[in-house]
Specification:
Layout lengths: L1 H6 L3 E2 L5 H26 L4 H29 L11 E2 L15 H24 L4 H28 L2 H33 L1 H11 L2 H26 L10 H18 L9 H26 L4 H24 L1
Parallel strand pairs: 1-2
Helix pairs in contact: 2-3, 2-4, 3-5, 4-5, 6-8, 6-9, 6-10, 6-11, 7-8, 7-11, 8-9, 10-11
């Protein structure tokens, strides 16, 4: 009972026979080839040159698998035991490619490097546990090949992804990041920070009650966040516009809208009205500066124009709130 509890139904690597080690290596190479081809498919539309690199790497994994199958047939026959990485305790895992979509070019390359390092470690350990000379030689050669894949990947990248292509792919990736996260998030931050100025400060100066003002600010921020999030997600599925996942855009917009409003609503948890209002006004200036910086950094808007647009909009809404609060 305790053995089953702690093993979770998995075998230890030390308990595997040489035939099972070969079978595990075969299934692992099959999985890695599939993953590399999935990476290639996911990158092909926007990064065709990098996709070709992963196709070549998948072909290399196929050649490793065939060498392992040939060795298994020579020693043990045609029937290969069904054993996969999830059957072996402590064996490295692979993250499904669909968890990484949409594929980030740099993270995909890093994941591939990690896969090669893990495979090299496996073949090194497996070779040490094998007594047959031919099998030991094959596993050692594969460990060496896996260790050289990083250099091979770099060579393929230089061949298939020259500097100009790499720069173009980086620009595409940056553009996709801006379309999926920055634009919706910036729109939400601007809406949350500026549109909630009027109701929050109108409530503040009308009531002089910090708790009531906080409740108004909280409801305005959360309501605006939900509205902006659903609007962003519903109005464009991203297929034709290329703006990416509507869920990710909706979350970016909704969360930033809520944070933008809460920034100057939270100070009204301070009981003293003057202190709370002073802190809230200071935070408003910080929020407006952040919006200006994002516009300049990611949207390439000149500092002067970005500052003028944000300051003008914020001042008008802030003034409207004060006037309504004193009415």
């Amino acid at each position: 009972m305790l053995t089953r509890l702690f093993s979770s139904g998995r075998r230890s690597f030390s308990s595997l026979s040489e035939q099972e080690i070969l079978a595990l290596a075969i299934s692992s190479e099959e999985d890695d080839a599939r993953i590399y081809r999935a990476y290639a498919d996911g990158l092909r539309t926007d990064y065709p040159a990098s996709a070709e690199v992963f196709e070549r790497m998948a072909d290399e994994e196929d050649s490793h698998r065939q060498s392992l199958i040939d060795q298994h047939q020579a020693r043990f026959g045609d029937r290969i035991p069904l054993i996969r990485r999830e059957h072996v305790r402590g064996y490295y895992e692979r993250k499904p490619d669909w968890l990484m979509r949409p594929l980030n070019l740099e993270k995909t390359r890093e994941q591939a490097e990690q896969m090669e390092r893990q495979a090299e470690r496996f073949y090194t350990v497996a070779a040490a546990r094998t007594s047959d000379a031919d099998t030991r030689r094959l596993l050692g050669d594969l460990a060496h090949a896996e260790s050289g894949h990083q250099a091979e990947a770099a060579r393929l990248e230089q061949e298939l992804v020259p500097e100009g292509v790499k720069e173009e792919e980086a620009r595409k990736e940056n553009r996709q990041f801006i379309l999926t996260y920055v634009q919706p998030g910036l729109a939400g931050l601007m809406d949350g920070s500026i549109s909630t100025l009027a109701p929050i400060f109108a409530a503040a100066f009308a009531t002089g009650d910090t708790w009531q003002t906080f409740l108004v600010g909280l409801s305005a921020s959360v309501g605006a966040g939900i509205s902006m999030g659903f609007t962003e997600a519903a109005h464009d599925d991203g297929v034709l516009s290329g703006r990416g996942s509507p869920i990710k855009r909706g979350l970016a917009s909704g969360i930033m809208t809520t944070l933008g409003g809460l920034g100057h609503a939270l100070p009204y948890l301070i009981p003293d009205f003057k202190i709370a209002t002073t802190v809230a006004v200071a935070i408003v200036f910080v929020e407006l500066w952040v919006i200006t910086w994002i516009q300049h950094r990611f949207m390439e808007t000149p500092w002067g124009r970005a500052a003028f647009q944000v300051a003008l909009g914020g001042a008008l809404v802030f003034a409207a709130g004060i006037l309504i609060g004193h009415a």
